[in-house]
């Protein structure tokens, strides 16, 4: 989510209209203090994490841990198409995608014939 200059300008105009020119400087100061507090909190958390993790902190590839990069479709596709030889933990047989499977011939129903169904499943 990126905030463009246009969005900031619209928010500023709405703030001027809602707060008025007398109260706007006070709330702008409070907003600046809040942003400084958040930045200080983030810096403190990063420093504390670096101290607790030690030298391994700089070696971590943080881009790989970004949750925005995960696509459920890609993860499922990779899991389904993974070679079972490389994945020793997977005991399940290889799943063949529907486009590769041989399908049973489709037999049309006769006029007035009911579609087959499993009485135990319904």
Topology as a string of helices (H) and strands (E): HH
Helix content bin = 40-55%
**Number of helices in the DSSP assignment:** 2
Radius of gyration: 30 Å
Average residue-wise pLDDT: 79
Low-confidence stretches: none
Distance between the termini: 47 Å
Number of strands: 0
Main sheet: strands, sense, barrel: none
The structure class reads mainly alpha
The percentage of residues in β strands lies in under 5%
Cα shape: elongated
**Which oligomerization state do the chains in this entry correspond to?**
single chain
Strand and helix layout:
Elements: H1 5-53, H2 72-81
Keywords:
elongated, mainly alpha, 122 residues, 48% helix
Tell me about this structure.
This protein is mainly alpha-helical. The chain has a domain at 5-81. The protein is built from 2 helices and no strands. It is elongated and about 80 Å long. The relative contact order is 0.03.
């Amino acid at each position: 989510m990126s905030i463009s200059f246009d969005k900031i300008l619209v928010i500023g105009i709405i703030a001027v209209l809602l707060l008025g020119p007398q109260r706007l400087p006070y709330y702008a100061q409070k907003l600046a203090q809040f942003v400084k507090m958040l930045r200080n909190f983030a810096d403190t958390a990063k420093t504390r994490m670096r101290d607790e993790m030690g030298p391994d902190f700089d070696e971590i590839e943080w881009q790989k841990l970004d949750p925005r990069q995960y696509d459920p479709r890609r993860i499922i596709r990779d899991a389904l198409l993974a070679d079972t030889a490389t994945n020793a933990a997977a005991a399940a047989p290889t799943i063949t995608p529907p486009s590769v499977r041989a399908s049973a011939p489709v037999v049309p129903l006769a006029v007035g014939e009911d579609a087959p169904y499993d009485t135990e499943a319904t």
